[in-house]
Amino acid sequence: MATTVTTLSGALSATGTRFVVAAYTAPSGRAKPLARIDDEIVLIADASLSPSLGVVRGYMGTLAVAHETQAAVEYGKPDDFPVTAHGPSFQNPAIYNPYTLANVQEVTITGATGTTAANVINPAPAFLNVTGTSGAGLNLGVPSAGEAYTIKNNTTGVCKVYCVGGTINGTTGTTAFSLTATGNLMAFAFCSTAGAWQIAGNT
After folding, report:
1. Domains of the chain
2. CB of 188 closer than 8 Å to CB of 194
3. Secondary structure in 3-state letters for 111-130
4. Cα 36 to Cα 3: distance, rounded to the nearest angstrom
5. Which are the contacts of 42, defined by CB distance < 8 A and separation ≥ 6?
6. Backbone torsion region of residue 60, taken as left when φ is above 0, otherwise alpha when ψ lies between -120 and 50, otherwise beta
7. What is the distance between the alpha carbons of residues 105 and 126, in angstroms, rounded to a whole number?
């Protein structure tokens, strides 16, 4: 496994959420890839317009700053980055030990089915803070063994949890797990068998 190095095709401001690189080939696997530009780590959240990439800036506790045209961009899967004193592990140990600094995602739930629900883009483990309209949902995606999410329902009603292409508690993931607005408002999703979520929480 190895990272790939390319360059920025234009300057990137400290607040920009999309940039163009000279070339990009998406790494294999379900995990969202990471990129390093100078000392900043970004999560590549959208590569559908490649080589224009939509990113989450200042990822894993790094600082979002401006970058110049032709700045080097190193990208790959999180575990592709070299573990050296000069690599991302030195600047940001949380990339290699996700419990050092937890991933979080603010999710505004949408849709009435799994295919129209809001997709979870942050890699597991992560805390998902959910807002939106009662009865709308989020899609966890098909998991690998060991993935886990904590889901906090901050809507005024029911949050529907889907897994299109996988299962939830032994049932097809297109049938929602309902996280209600009563009780503790939280659920814990864990995968022990690839493709299958087990979810415990108030229903």
Report:
1. 4-95 (no CATH), 103-201 (2.60.120)
2. no
3. CCCCCCCEECCCCCCEEEEE
4. 10
5. 34, 35, 36, 55, 56, 57, 58, 59
6. left
7. 7
Q: Which residues contact 175 (CB under 8 A, 6 or more apart)?
A: 168
Characterize the bridge pairing of strands 40-49 and 52-56: antiparallel
CB-CB contact of 55 with 18 (8 Å): yes
Q: How many residues does the chain have?
A: 203
pLDDT 10s digits, 30-70: 778 999 998 888 999 999 999 999 999 988 778 899 999 99
Q: What residue type is 195 in one-letter code?
A: G
Closest alpha carbon to 178 in 195, 159, 199: 159
Q: What span, in angstroms and rounded, lies between the C-alpha atoms of 32 and 63?
A: 19
How far is the C-alpha of 80 from the C-alpha of 26, rounded, in Å? 13
On the question of pLDDT at 16 being above 50, the answer is: yes
What six digits make up the tokens of 76? 């790959």
